[in-house]
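fyi for ur records
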Amino acid sequence: MSAALNSNSPSRFITLEGGLNFRDIGGYRAGDSSVCWGRVYRAGVLSYFTDADHPTLGNLQIRAICDLRRAEERMREPTQWPNSTAEALAWEDGLNMPTIRGFAASRPKTAAGMRESMLDLYRALPTWMAPRIRGFFECIANEQLPLVIHCAAGKDRTGVAVAVLLSALGVDEDTILEDYLLTNTVTNFEQFIAARKDSHLGLADKHEPLLAMPQAMRDVLFRADAEYLHTSLEQIRKEFGDLPTYLKACVRLDDRTIARVRDVLLE
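which gave:
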């Protein structure tokens, strides 16, 4: 664990009875600066908070919730945030929407097949998520902060979006990967789902219960694997050459917005 990560900071992990993978992305070194604490949080589904969680959530003073999930996920597991003044931001699914179920349908029903499906997903996410990432960056540039960015598990779509943000801020790739891998330290997806019978995490429904999947496949699906995120970052380099070109050509962000994001989030 790198010194830059400082993952043991009491501010990093937000302890909540009904929260999933909820943590602050502040404190990481970014060149000669560092990412501010208390401005951007990453998380999984926000549907299962308890009354005991409300004071902690209220203290965060969240002004915007950036929901990266698909429309069907938002309908099935709507966000339950105690503060009605937090603006909810979501985006249309568009065409050629990549899903792990879609990729897995053409692969063997094995751990190896699931792993290849995960790599397929991570190759597809940077381009498909471009409008979501643009909205996320614009929200920061407009200082709708603090904000939460989340998906279902807070691992895949959130992982890619946060990786793009941290990279744009100047955080090195090793630290970005370590932040991504913290999911394996702080989250037990199987326990979370088992304790909440209606939880699907965007992957399954009553006809295909997630916990009925063979254990070896679940292990691959639930794990944050450095190769997954590395695949997304490599895909960006393969298609666009580098992250700045990706942000301009694919995400369609201008230099002013990117500079404003850096001004807002760096110490």
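Confidence is low (pLDDT under 50) at residues 204-208. thats all i got for now
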